[in-house]
Every structure is written in C-alpha cells, then in structure tokens.
Task: structure prediction
Amino acid sequence: MPQTPGQPPGDTSGDPAPEQAAAHAPQRSHQMPPWLPKAFALAGGSVLAFLAGLWLLERLRELLLLLVISLFLAFAIEPAVNWLAARGWRRGLATAAMFVVVGLLIAGFLGGIGSLLAAQATNLIGGFPGYVRRFVGWVNATFGTHLSQQTVFQRLPTVTGALSRHLSGLAANVWGFGTTAVGVLFNTLGVLLFTFYLSAEGPRFRRTVCSLLPPHRQREVLRAWEIAVDKTGGYIYSRGLLALISGIAHYAAMAGLGVPYAAALALWVGVVSQFIPAVGTYLAGAVPVLIALTRSPSTALWILLFIIAYQQLENYLLQPRITARTLDMHPAVAFGLILAGAAVAGPIGVLLAIPLGASLQAFVGAYVRRYEVEEHPLTTPDAPPARWWRWLRRG
Result:
C-alpha cells in the first residue's frame, strides 16, 4: 500500500480493514459461461446433421450409383457427340444416334451369343454321353490311363438329379425373378434418361455449374471435366480396338481349326476379354475351349494354346501401343483399382474403376509437382531390353 503523507514507514494503521477490502474486491461469478450452451448446441447439431447425412446417403445410394454410371456413359459417348455436333448435328440428335449405334452393337452381341448358347445347349444335352465317351477314350489313349467309362456314366444320374433339383428350385422362384427384372428395367431406363440429358445438355449443364464459381475455379472445373472425358473416351476407344483385333484373330484361328460357331465365339472372346477386367480373359477363353471339345480334344488343346499365345502377344505388343496415348496405367495399379471398385460397388464398380482411376491419375499428373530423383542403387531402373526386342516392339 502507498504510504500516506506523515505516516511513519511500516505503520499500517491507515490501511482499510480486511472486511472492507473483501467488500471492495471483485466478486467471482459461479455461473456457466454464456458461450458454453451455444458450443453444446453446435456440437449436438453437427452430430445430428452428420447422422442425417449418413442416413440420406444410404437411402440415396442406388440413385447416386445410377448418376455415376450415367456420367461415365456420357463421358464415353461425348467425343463422338462432339464430333457430330462440330459437323452441324444438333446435340440431341447426335446423342440419339449414338444410342442407336450402341444399342445395335449390344443387340448384335446378345443375339449372337444367345443363338450360340441355345444351339449348344441343345447339342450338349443330346450328345453329352457321346462326348464323355470320346473324351475318356482320348485321355486313356493319349496319357496311358485306365479311366472307366462305366464309372463315369454311373455318376451321371446323380449329377443330373442334382442339377434338376436346382433348376426346379429356380423355376419355383418366378416371382422373385420377375421383380428383379422389373427393377433392372427401371434402373436401365433411369440410366439411359440421365445419360441422354448429360450428353445432349452437356454445354448448358457445364455453364450452370460454372456460373456458381469464380473464373479461376471455372477453368479448373472445365479442365477436370476435359480430362475425365479424354480418359473415359480413350478407355472405350482402346478397349474397342483391342476387341476388334482379338475377335478377328480368334475367328481366323477357330475357322481354320473347324470350330463351330466361329463368328459368335470370336465376338464373345473379343468383347468379354476386353471389357470385363481381370477375369474376362478366363471367361472369354473357356467357352471356345468347351465348344471345341465337341469336335475333338486335340482341337480344344490347339484353341487353348492359341488363346495363351495371343494373350502374350496382346499384353506385350498390342496393348502397350494402343493404350500408350489413351490409358497408360501400371497393371498392379489397375488390379488394385478393380479390387477397390468391386468392394465399393460390386460389378458396376469393377467396370468403372479403371477409367475413374485413369482420370485421377491424370489429375495427379496435372496438379502435383514432381522433383528430380537422386541417383541411388534402389532407384536404378532395369537395363534396356535387347535390340531384337526393341525392333520387334517398333515393328
């Protein structure tokens, strides 16, 4: 306390009493801070909004998946639609023309495969015992085994009875199949409708989106959109070209070996091997081998060897050249994307994973800065291939 004039040092008689000092001291408040209820309300509202968003996302999951599929299909046909629009076509008419072309291709594929399956099912049912007898005889003669045809035929009734029971159970669930078919038809019509409007009204839709963004954000959105269209269109183009080459090569081989239904089987191999990732090659090759077995086991063996040889030729020569400018992606990355797509969205995710991954890879290459790599034994690449291999790939 400061000393009053005339007061001896150390004399505190002039100080106020403790009761007076306590009375004049500021009072401490024991009430809740005014911001705390607002913080609790904000936290509770955020949690409720998050849970509501998850609930809404779960309810709209099917619709969002349809929109993603429609966007992918719009990206796939947009290069062709833009090409027609640049030559005076209206975008709606150009989109309808692309729908007709794609529909005819799908109808031709399904019609060819359907006729093949119907004819082969009839042939297999009628001639199954003869096929088994010839196959067992060929195995015994070729490999020196002593398989018993009688044992095989004794087991056939058991297998046939089990198949009949399964088919009867499936036939009893006609109502379930009908409901599923109606749902698939409804979803297909929804995808076609969304795809048509996203393609036919593409410029107007992009103008609407860009009108909500500042100019520099508009350029980024349009650049991302262009990359997605290029990568998706490049994926369809490269797969289609590889399917055409594969179909022609397999038709020549199967027609030369006398395999029945060579044209339908070549169409099956070309489309399935290119447009179904990972397992498409095995599905595509299994059917021609099984059909060739109806002619002779040696023909089936030759078809299997040709499929294996062509697959190597495609992997090392054709695919790197065709996809170098359209969809350049490491096989391990593509396989990982396929697994991720299957885990997230099932079969649809498998089909969408690779073009989506290619678009993301292009975004990363466009926006992520890269640096020079330090020389180190762990970063030294493999030696360049031999001269004959380089010449073969250039050829």
Notes: The mean pLDDT is 76. DSSP finds 13 helices and no strands in the chain. The longest helix spans residues 91-143. The radius of gyration is 35 Å.
